[in-house]
């Protein structure tokens, strides 16, 4: 949806003598460019062009040279050749276009004669956006009249590692004075120029409002989907008001905060914090592997089992071909940015009617084709940051939302984000091989294309702005320990499994991952698994782990204990004697009953013995 606007530059040699027409230049001269873009540590850009013009005919020579720049105003312009400084003028061609004209002092005549000259100027600086340095280099205009071209990009090491560079440089090598050089040939920059970002992540501050309403006369339970951690982002919440009853993870990986609403009541849930966005998937957040029953299934908008979808999927074959087909086949509808929200067309309608497509059509068609080809795919719905007002995400109920697909890469064991919409609208930037720092995921859709709803879509009756996101200074969120406690049973009884519960409460605004838990006990028999690993504990959540103890027939004379090791922490619970009170009473009563019964039977036996003895004495007399 959003696009990156690029400057264009074109060689326009002014011909002297017979044909002073710029369009004839390609037949009268050969051109050789070596261009250097060098960025200082403060982001300022210095450009030097070494241009060689060689006469192909004896009757022509170049008297001047023009460089046209769109959306850029060059400064500190200078030029020179073998004869010394050159006469240079700067003029405005259109509102967003500036032209540098270089006038040569002396003609270079004769077939095969060459003129070498240098042009220097300061151009568009790199942009520091939060934690990221971003640069945009113009594409090569009129590449058909340029015979040879190479571009060297020099980036200071202080900018950090490259998060993405599009297109890929032909060569990367260290350079002097703490710089790194990236080299691009003509064929890689003629179509789209160069876009690059340097840094490890981007930080976005966010404030999200969820409008919940219960118009019924009964108490209901409702959930809101909080932006979750994914392979491309870590989310840190500074506040969530009101606090939910619990936060759980659904099968798609969404974080669902549960609330109870009384009859005929409404409430606002406000979540604020910071998201750290990555350009490459990380292994630090465990990824849910694909589920064949949902990630390949057909839905109302992802008609992966339709014959026409199957036909195209079989023809395209792999995920990259599918992606390129979606980009080339669909036509983006810019008017949708200002229009009211519209219904979702779905993949089949997008395939048959490619005009008037927006991000949902690009996403739906990609998912349907990928699933039809046996490639697990899903939708991400969220926010995409751009400074281009024409290409901001679609207006949905007053908020700006964006959709993009992910596919499962089995070789990397990862869900990979791609954005065919932005590749279409950016003029060819590669969003398949490299992602960026601008996509903030709100929800994940696998089985249901509509649910859970994204932030900004919880009450569309009155258009309001419920999403506020901006690049913000980095904050370091240090985790605090989990709150761990034991929940014992009401009483301990013999011969049965007595259930204890280990409670892990996470009262803070960040998640924990892969927490090992092990159980052991002194003078207790633990039933069931003694070791487990909790994959994720979401923020503001409570996780309960049951563990059972099978007791012997007799109550212990010294209290037993049960212990849990959670990560590096150990929590021991000494089972109090009061839990055995019922057991003691039962034991005492059973013992007393047994003694009384034994006494009764002993008495009966003794009485019977005495009766028999008395009868024997009478007979002897």
UniProtKB/TrEMBL annotation:
InterPro entries linked: Papain-like_cys_pep_sf, Transglutaminase-like
Taxonomic superkingdom: Bacteria
Organism encoding this protein: Candidatus Amesbacteria bacterium RIFCSPLOWO2_01_FULL_47_33
Lineage summary: Bacteria, Candidatus Amesiibacteriota
Annotated SMART domains: TGc
Domain Transglutaminase-like: 351-422
The entry's keywords: Membrane, Signal, Transmembrane, Transmembrane helix
Designated name of the protein: Transglutaminase-like domain-containing protein
Transmembrane segments annotated in the record for this chain: 580-603
Signal sequence bounds: 1-25
């Amino acid at each position: 949806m959003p696009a990156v606007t690029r400057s264009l530059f074109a060689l326009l040699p002014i011909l002297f003598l017979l044909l002073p027409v710029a369009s004839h230049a390609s037949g009268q001269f050969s051109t050789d460019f070596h261009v250097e873009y060098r960025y200082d540590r403060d982001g300022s850009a210095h450009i030097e062009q070494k241009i060689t013009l060689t006469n192909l005919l004896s009757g022509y020579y170049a008297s001047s040279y023009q460089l046209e720049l769109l959306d850029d105003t060059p400064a500190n312009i200078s030029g020179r050749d073998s004869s010394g400084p050159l006469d240079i003028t700067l003029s405005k061609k259109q509102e967003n276009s500036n032209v540098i004209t270089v006038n040569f002092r002396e003609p270079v005549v004769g077939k095969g004669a060459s003129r070498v000259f240098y042009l220097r100027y300061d151009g568009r600086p790199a942009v520091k956006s939060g934690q990221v340095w971003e640069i945009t280099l113009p594409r090569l205009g009129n590449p058909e009249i340029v015979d040879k071209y190479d571009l060297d990009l020099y980036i200071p090491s202080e900018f950090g590692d490259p998060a993405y560079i599009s297109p890929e440089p032909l060569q990367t090598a260290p350079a002097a004075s703490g710089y790194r050089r990236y080299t691009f040939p003509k064929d890689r920059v003629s179509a789209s120029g160069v876009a690059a970002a340097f840094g490890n992540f981007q930080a976005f501050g966010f404030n999200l409002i969820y409008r919940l309403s219960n118009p019924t006369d009964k108490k209901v339970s409702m959930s809101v989907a909080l932006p979750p951690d994914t392979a491309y982002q870590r989310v840190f919440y500074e506040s969530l008001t009101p606090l939910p009853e619990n936060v759980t993870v659904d099968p798609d990986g969404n974080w669902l905060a549960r609330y109870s609403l009384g009859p005929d009541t409404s409430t606002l849930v406000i979540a604020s914090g910071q998201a750290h966005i990555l350009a490459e998937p990380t292994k630090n957040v465990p990824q849910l592997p694909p589920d064949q029953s949902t990630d390949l299934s057909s839905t109302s908008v992802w008609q992966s089992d339709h014959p026409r979808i199957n036909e195209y999927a079989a023809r395209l074959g792999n995920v990259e071909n599918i992606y390129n087909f979606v980009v080339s086949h669909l036509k983006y509808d810019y008017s949708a940015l200002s229009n009211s929200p519209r219904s979702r067309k779905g993949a089949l309608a997008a395939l048959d009617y490619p005009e008037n497509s927006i991000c949902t059509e690009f996403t739906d068609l990609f998912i349907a084709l990928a699933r039809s080809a046996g490639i697990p795919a899903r939708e991400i719905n969220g926010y995409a940051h751009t400074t281009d007002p024409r290409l901001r995400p679609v207006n949905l109920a007053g908020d700006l939302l964006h959709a993009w697909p992910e596919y499962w890469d089995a070789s990397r064991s990862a869900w990979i984000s791609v954005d065919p919409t932005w590749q279409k609208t950016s003029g060819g930037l590669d969003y398949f091989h490299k992602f960026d720092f601008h996509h903030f995921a709100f929800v994940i859709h696998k089985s249901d294309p509509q649910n859970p709803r994204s932030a900004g879509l919880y009450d569309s009756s009155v258009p309001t702005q419920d999403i506020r996101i901006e690049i913000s200074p980095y904050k370091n969120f240090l985790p605090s320990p989990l709150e761990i406690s034991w929940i014992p049973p009401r009483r301990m009884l013999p011969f049965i499994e007595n259930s204890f519960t280990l409670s892990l409460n996470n009262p803070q605004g960040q998640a924990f991952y892969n927490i090992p838990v092990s159980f052991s006990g002194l003078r207790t028999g633990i039933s069931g698994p003694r070791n487990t690993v909790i994959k994720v504990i979401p923020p503001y959540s409570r996780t309960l782990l049951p563990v059972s103890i099978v007791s012997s027939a007799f109550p212990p004379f010294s209290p037993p204990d049960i212990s849990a090791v959670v990560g590096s922490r150990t929590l021991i619970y000494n089972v109090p004697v009061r839990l055995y009170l019922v057991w003691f009473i039962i034991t005492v009563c059973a013992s007393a009953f047994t003694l009384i019964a034994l006494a009764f039977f002993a008495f009966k036996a003794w009485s019977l013995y005495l009766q028999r003895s008395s009868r024997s004495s009478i007979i002897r007399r």
